[in-house]
Amino acid sequence: MDILQTLKADYQRFPNNPTYEIYDPNVYFKDPLTEFRGLTRYQSMIQFMKTWFKDVCLTLHDIHRTGQKVKTEWTLSWTTPLPWTPRIVIPGRSELLLNDEERIVSHIDYWHCSRFNVIKQHFFTSKTR
């Protein structure tokens, strides 16, 4: 299994049908809002996004591998189910660390915007930000 091709396909259909087999059972995940260990927690987070948000889209801009490290650049967007249906956009990047079995043991997301900016997007349109 080519990890880069698998990740590209996962990004295209996100959050539907992720290839969880590429993750170590004790995977470490961190982003600006949360930090945890374990594939079960990771699956719960993806399921939460799939269930709660509408029109979730993860656009992959770049992906490359150097040794056991995979780096991606992306934009995550969704519509929050509030009466005024704000569209949230988070540009960011991920650093994934692979073990010898080619499984992801660490997945760290970095946002190119602040947590406050993401909250603000729920209340102000892009024209008023």
Automatic annotation (TrEMBL):
InterPro entries: DUF2358, NTF2-like_dom_sf. It comes from Lusitaniella coriacea LEGE 07157. Pfam families: DUF2358. Signal peptide: none annotated. PANTHER family: OS04G0578200 PROTEIN. Transmembrane segments: none annotated. It comes from the Bacteria. The lineage of its organism: Bacteria, Bacillati, Cyanobacteriota, Cyanophyceae, Spirulinales. This is DUF2358 domain-containing protein.
